[in-house]
Each structure stands twice: as C-alpha cells, then as structure tokens.
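Fold these two proteins, one after the other.
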Amino acid sequence: MLTQWNQMPTVEPYEKLDISRYLSLISKMREMGFVLTKEQELRAANIPFDETEEPLRELFFRFLRQWQQGEAVEQPALPEEEPTLPELELHYRKLDLYFSFAKAFGCPVDEDKLYDSRERVAEAINEILLHRLRNNIRFCARCGRALPLHHRGRLCDDCYRRERRGASRRPG
C-alpha cells in the first residue's frame, strides 16, 4: 500500500511526504523476521531516530524484539568508563529513541529516571564543551575574542586589518 502511494503522481499544489524512510524501515523489519500488523509497522517506522546510525538502528531493533517477545524495554545505561563527547551525544540520542519507542508502544517509563539521565548526560556534554575545549581555544592578543580553531596568527582578522591600516598610514 505504501509502495503504491509512493508511486502515485502528485497534482499541484499538493506535495507528497517522502516515505522512503518508512518503506526502508518496514522492509528491514520484515527482512529481520518481525511479524507486525500494518498499524504496528507504521507506528515503529514513525519513531524519530537516525536509522543510518548503526548503534541507534541496532537499539531500535533490540527494543522492537524485546517488545514483541513481551520483555521489558529498558532505558540504555551510560557506559561505565568516562565517555567521550561523541559517546555522550550518542547516548543522549539513545535516550530519546528509548522514550519515543516506549511511548509509541505503550511501554512503562520511569520518567524521573529518564529525566535525571538526560540531565546528567547534558551536564557532562556541557562540562566537556565549556571546560575541556576552552583550554584548546586561543584568543586574540588585542581584543580577546576567540580565534577560529585553525587560525594561524595571534590577532583576529578585524584587529589584524586595523593594525595593517594603521601601519600603512604611518610615515615610513
């Protein structure tokens, strides 16, 4: 049915929603052996996450398998060791996927625990961005503005131009 809808021509002024993501996810669910009603397939395919990111895709299908087998869908745990910035960002997206999946399929969610987890991850991300990265940022020697990461000089472009203009006006 969705494939037929996707192939139907569109008449101006209407535009069709691109449903290739839905078709791809539903096809993958069927390929993996999930037996769902059409309504359940659409509900699953409508969960917002980046299915091109393998860890999120794997988590989605793990949740789907757990739900289909009547098992509890559990909130993902943060890695034990001190996570890197990309790991923290991925974990935050995993928490979003968990919440969206649980809501879509009526799974119980400890919202206080989820809120606390999101807060801890957000604080850890902010800690890295504000403190650890600050040590690697250079500042303009004249105005104190942060310089771009790959900037070569000790002055920002504006201060450099001002200095050059001043030097060209002085009698030589």
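Now the second one:
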Amino acid sequence: MIDIVIPGEAGKLHAVYHKSNIPSAPLAVVLSGNPRQKYHMNDRVSYAMFRAFMDIGFSVLRFNYRGVNDSEGAIGTTSENMLDIATVIDWIQNRNEDSDKIWLAGNQLGAWYVLQVMMRRPEISGFALVSPDPSVSDFAFLSPRPNRGLLLQGGAESEDAKAFATHLTQILKKQAQIDLETIRIKNSDAMYSQPVDLRQMYNDLKAYVGRENEDSKLL
C-alpha cells in the first residue's frame, strides 16, 4: 500500500491505495465516519475494512475527507464530502479500466454516504455498512436500486442502535429494494474496541465480500 495525493475540489486529498497485481481485480473504496467526531482513514475500523478488501485481492483505497489531517481545505458539509467521494471513485476507476466491479464500505456516517453514492452511481456492485450512525434518519434520497449488502453491528451497541438497524433494513427493502444481511458481533461495542471484536468484524466482512464477489448474480 502507498500514500497518494488526489486533486480535489478544495485541494489535495490524502489517501492510501493498494493496487492488486491482477489488472481486472475488483475495486473498493472505504469511507470513514464523521470527521467532526475525529473519525479518519487511519482509525481502527477504517483500516480493518481496508485490509479485508486488500486481503481478498481487491484494489482498494481509503482517504481523508477535505480538512481532515493532511487533506487540504476545511471540514466539509455532507454535499462537500460527497464531492470528495466522487473524486476518489473516479480516480480509482480511471486507473483500473480493466475492472468491472467496485464496492463501497462505510463506517458510522460513512455508511450513510455509501447508500447515497449507490443512489447516484449505478456501477456500484456491492456494499457494506459498519455500525451506521443511528442519529441520521433522512431516507428521502432512496429510490429503487435492487441490490444486496451487509450490515455489521456490535452486539453490545445500544438497544436504540439495534432497533434502528432493524428499521433501516426494512426501509431499504421497502423503498430501494435492497436486501441487507445483518451480522451482530457478540459483546462488541460500536467502536470494536477489543482486538477480538475488530478481528471478527474483519473476518465477517472479508467472508461476505469474498462470497458475494464470486456470485454471478451480483448486480
């Protein structure tokens, strides 16, 4: 993996990129949580998601939104962060023209960004949501987009967070025709604070992506 700089609307975006030695390998972009809550591309959850894709042969990229650590500019709004996401997706696709699959994985607020990007970019092949932020409840952006994906959550997250995940699953099925497979990691909190919990999250994500990527029915 290498550190790279990607030209963005507000200046340079700092990213880490791993390129598979297989030219047609599938692609993945990892979206970290809310930068105003100190999430960034090198936090433990973002790194674990990145490694899950890397270790099954994907070309994968993680990055910091504008205004975060070495990315230039001021911390952005949702619409500005979405522009940064579009920039990095374009970057990885332009450098991997032989690849015909791209996945997204997001943690916390990044999970919401995953869903919004899917509504805008029909080429997204698959996705994973890791402990979505339960304080976000605007579903107005959803439209029919038949697909399936994974929701990972800590079994020790609050009852409100778990109820919200169930509600999200129902909303996605009803409004967007998206099926979610939910895995709850026993005793884990939303930060996957214990090494055993982080390892289990990594293993579950890796297993799901590996299985779905091989499925010819994947949209």
